[in-house]
Input
Amino acid sequence: MYQVQHDLRYAWGLTICGHSVYVCHFGSDKAVSSKPINVTTPEGRHAFIELLVSWSMCDDSQLGRDPTIKYLPDLDCWQVDCPDDGEDRSAGTELRYYYNTVICHADHLFGRHTRCFLATDIKPTAESPLEPNVVIKDAWAFAERSADEDICDEVKLLKKIRDVLSTSLSPKDNVTYPEIVVGGRVRFEQGDIDIKDNTDMMYQGVEFAGDDLPRFRVHRRIVLSQIGERIHSVKSVDKLVTVLCDVMRCHNAIFEHCQILHRDISDNNVLVVRQGDGIARGLLIDFDYALDMSIEELRTPRPEMTGTLLFMSINNLRNWGVKRTVLDDYESMFVGPECRGTSYIEVQGTQSIESEAAQDFPPLFDDELQYKPETINPFEKRAEEDNVA
Output
């Protein structure tokens, strides 16, 4: 449902059980059902007809569609408005982009519904087809209701990274870091009303019992200047190790100069990008769970478990409640090569089949777990490429 309709924010549904009809609302974290409408009674039939009439009079945004995303049939592409929140976290300007390629779909019924589009700010024409130059990330992220109090605001963190590293680093540092163009919380107009797109608006009028109240989410959209591929596209060991070295260099620069701890390093949060020199480099992305450790109250232990389960550090998995440090991120970073360093075999009956993990990456070790000495030193390889460039 969400995968094929990338302008869908939430969904409505009807469930019929015998003589009873239930209205269902599917949000980011749960499905909410109405009380049964008994269509065998005059009151029930009246309520059901009233429901259908109300739906027919709703605009698209009330039915779950995103009014900031529109399809342009003449150009065979989509138009999307991206917010740029002001420095005081208030609503700022909006920039318009165009896309026809979705590289990440929202493939789950519940969750962040993350989507990524390859886009451009230049409106295409019949003579000038669409050529993407940015990536748009669209997601429903956990947040605080007040933008000023949102310590995990990815937009705010990415802007700090951009502003600090652009002046603190030189080309000699050889660091590739995420460069945000614009970003912010999605808003739109419904008649004369300015709507903030969040779960408070989504569940408006629904009464939840105590602990059943879903955690607050905001609809956030971010534009990044780098276009890349997943790390699974790397087919050689030397390139893989080189990309991981770049990611560690990126992480170190961000923590040293910005005091931002990523806290969710995994395969899905590493991109392989090619910049002006044409050399493949590793880039650390997705700062949804990152924290600015320069903020005094964040220096105390934060016991919550964050990150991708397979890549969590022992400290994180045990949930000991001790302070998370840069060492936890390093541990997560080293889990990836460990997983890809061996070839997994799935046995089905008498037939052995290599898994996708084994096909994606050539093993760093042979069948007897002896390291392959012919693997190229990634630092020597990078030096050769830099000299050529």
About this structure: Residues 161 and 387 are 28 Å apart (CA to CA).
